[in-house]
Amino acid sequence: MTILTFTLVLLGGAFLAGLLGSLTGLGGGVVIIPLLTLGFHTDIRYAIGTALIAAIATSSGSASAYVKEGITNIRLGMFLEIATTTGAVAGALLAVYMPTNAVAIIFGVVLIISGFLSFRPKHSNLETGNHSQLAQQLRLNGNYPTSDGHVNYKVRHVPGGYLMMTVAGVLSGLLGIGSGALKVLAMDNMMRVPFKVSTTTSNFMIGVTAAASAVVYLQRGYIDPGLCLPVVLGVLAGALGGTKILAHAKTKWLRIIFGVVITLLALQMIYNGITGKL
User: Fold this and answer.
1) SS3 helix, strand, coil % of the chain, rounded to 5?
2) 10 Å Cβ neighbour count for 234?
3) CA distances, 277 to each of 39, 110, 200, 271 (Å)
């Protein structure tokens, strides 16, 4: 394969990764890492470093548009970023000393969890039921625009969501996937934030979390500019395209298709990790 062919294929794969990452809030790493490791036989640490740079591009491309549209809960995102950033640094330090096959197996397990979560029904999580006093004190409650006007919602279970965000940060640094699955799970299922708000706030947070992890990979020499350039361009284009689709998209079929694809990729990653091919 020539360098030009390699770059074009990688650019196309990165575009799809950015599109899916933007639409689901899971980040582009869930596609980029299997693409590089399984498709191009890249060392998984270099793939993770590239995915972290791509995650920054995804977040930068989509988060700015979501913030402008008024969907993202910026205050909630900034609060939870304290947890994800500290976890991300710890995970990145752990990753550079862990065997690559172990990282591949963990990555596959996390992908399966992400696929399972894609099938779970999402809740409207409107302003009903018990409210969190801590969320009220921190002013984490908010609203978001819909076709019927602004809808208010209340954030709940703040300590549990904060703890899950710390775990998400560790996985982000360890696996380079942004851990959007856990971020969306924490906000949507535990903190009872509406799905569109949790997805867009996850995108807003992923860039900061990835940047904290990327510093460690950069210092260790696991970030290759030749891989990062086409991936960042493709992911950024895909992320910007995703922002135009999400506002009008029905996410049911998107989650199902995405869940099936990444589950198949996960099984392949686990198999290669167990057999020592990665």
Assistant:
1) 75, 5, 20
2) 26
3) 13, 19, 36, 9
Of the candidates 84, 15, 27, 73, the residue with the CA atom closest to the CA atom of residue 203: 27
State whether residue 145 is helix, strand or coil: strand
pLDDT digits (tens, 9 = 90+) for 36-80: 888 888 888 899 899 888 878 777 766 777 777 788 888 998 999
Tokens of 200: 């867009």
Domain, as residue range, for 41: 3-274
Cα–Cα dist 67/88, whole Å: 24
Contacts of 140 (CB under 8 A, 6+ apart): 73, 75, 76, 79, 132, 155, 158
Domain count, the chain: 1
pLDDT tens column, 141-172: 888 887 778 888 888 889 988 998 898 888 87
The type of residue at 118 is S
72 within 8 A of 204, measured Cβ to Cβ: yes
Tell me the average pLDDT across 173-188: 73
Question: Sign of the CA dihedral 226, 177, 218, 207?
Answer: positive
Lowest average pLDDT, out of 34-48, 106-120, 196-210, goes to 106-120
CA-CA distance, 30 to 175, in Å (whole number)? 9
Region 101-121: mean pLDDT is: 76
Helix axis angle for 44-69 and 3-24, nearest 10°, is 50
Q: Measuring CA to CA, which residue among 86, 104, 111 is closest to residue 26?
A: 111
CB 156 within 8 A of CB 136: no
**Please, what is the average pLDDT of the chain?**
80
